[in-house]
Design goal:
Blueprint (H helix, E strand, L loop, with lengths): L10 H16 L56 E6 L13 E7 L4 E6 L5 E7 L2 E6 L5 E6 L4 E4 L4 E5 L7 E7 L7 E2 H6 L7 H8 L3 H11 L2 H5 L12
Antiparallel strand pairs: 1-2, 2-9, 3-8, 3-10, 4-7, 4-9, 5-6, 5-8
The structure holds 2-acetamido-2-deoxy-beta-D-glucopyranose (2 copies).
Subcellular location: Secreted, Extracellular space, Apoplast
Protein name: Germin-like protein
Keywords: Apoplast, Disulfide bond, Glycoprotein, Manganese, Metal-binding, Secreted, Signal
C-alpha cells in the first residue's frame, strides 16, 4: 500500500533531527581524556598521522610547558597586506595540546588589512588593544556585520564565516589579541584560495564566476603572486597564515 502523500513524521522527529544538526554545529575539538597532554613536538610519527600531537610523559611536566612569551613581540607587517599574525599554539605552548585553544597576536600596519578569510574549525573572539580596527564578517545570507573597535572592545567572528580586520588609520599601527576555540583552526584567505591556489583554478572557471576576462585574472595573479607560499599553512606547527 502506498503512503498517503500528506503523511508527515511526527514533530518529535523534527526536534531530534534539529538537535542532531545543532549539536554537530556546536562541536569543536575532541574533549581531552586527561588533565593535560603536553605536546611532544620532537616525537616523530612518520608512518601515521594523528588527530592530536602525542604527549610527553606527564612525570616530566613543568610549569614552563604551560607558559610562553611568543606574543610579546610584534610580527613584521612589511608584506603585501600589511599584517602579521603570531600564534601561541602547540608549537610554542605545548601545554595547549588537546585543550581546543589557540591564541593569536594580530599586528596591523597603518592602512594594513587582514584580508577576508575564514577558519573552518574555529570561532574567534578578538579584542582590540591598540589603535582603531574596522572589523566585519559576512553570514551565510551575505549580510555584513561590521564595527569599529577601540582599545578594550571585542568582536566575535562565528566559525567558518568570512571576516576581515582593517586598520584605516594612516599613522598608527593597530594591535589585537584573538582567542580561537580549536588548537588547529585552519585559515583560508578568500583571494588567495581563489586566485593564487596551487595549482591554479582553471581560467574559464574564474572568468565565468567573476564575469572577468583573462587579462583581469592575469593582473590579479600578478598582484597576489607568490603569496600562497608566504601565507599558506595546513598544520598547527607553522606560525604563519592561520588567521
Ligand atoms: C618525545 O618523543 C620521543 C620520540 O618518540 C621520545 O624519545 C621522547 O622521550 C619524548 N619526550 C618526552 C619528554 O617524553
Ligand atoms: C611575521 O613576522 C615574523 C617575525 O618578524 C616574520 O618572520 C614573518 O615572515 C612575518 N610573516 C609575514 C607573512 O609577513
Amino acid at each position: 500500500m502506498m503512503m498517503k502523500t500528506g503523511t508527515r513524521p511526527p514533530p518529535l522527529i523534527y526536534g531530534i533531527l534539529a538537535l542532531a544538526v545543532l549539536s554537530r554545529w556546536a562541536m569543536t575539538d575532541p574533549d581531552p581524556l586527561q588533565d593535560y597532554c603536553i605536546a611532544n613536538t620532537t616525537s616523530s610519527s612518520s608512518s601515521m598521522t594523528m588527530n592530536e600531537i602525542p604527549c610527553i610523559n606527564p612525570a616530566s611536566a613543568t610549569a614552563s610547558h604551560f607558559a610562553t612569551s611568543a606574543l610579546s613581540k610584534p610580527g613584521n607587517t612589511g608584506n603585501r597586506f600589511g599584517f602579521n599574525v603570531t600564534l601561541a599554539n602547540t608549537a610554542n605552548l605545548p601545554g595547549l595540546n588537546t585543550m581546543g585553544l589557540t591564541l593569536a597576536r594580530v599586528d596591523i600596519a597603518p592602512q594594513g588589512v587582514v584580508p577576508p578569510h575564514s577558519h573552518p574549525r574555529a570561532s574567534e573572539v578578538t579584542t582590540c588593544l591598540k589603535g582603531y580596527i574596522h572589523v566585519g564578517f559576512v553570514d551565510a545570507s551575505n549580510r555584513l556585520y561590521t564595527q569599529i573597535l577601540r582599545p578594550g572592545d571585542s568582536f566575535v567572528f562565528p566559525r567558518g564565516l568570512i571576516h576581515y580586520l582593517y586598520n584605516s588609520d594612516y599613522r598608527t599601527p593597530a594591535l589585537a589579541m584573538s582567542g580561537l576555540n580549536s588548537q588547529n583552526p585552519g585559515t583560508q584567505i578568500a583571494s588567495l584560495a581563489t586566485f593564487a591556489s596551487n595549482p591554479e583554478i582553471p581560467e574559464q572557471v574564474l572568468e565565468k564566476a567573476f564575469k572577468i576576462t583573462g587579462q583581469d585574472i592575469a593582473r590579479i595573479h600578478n598582484n597576489l603572486g607568490g603569496s600562497w607560499m608566504e601565507f599558506s599553512s595546513q598544520d598547527d606547527k607553522s606560525l604563519l597564515g592561520r588567521i
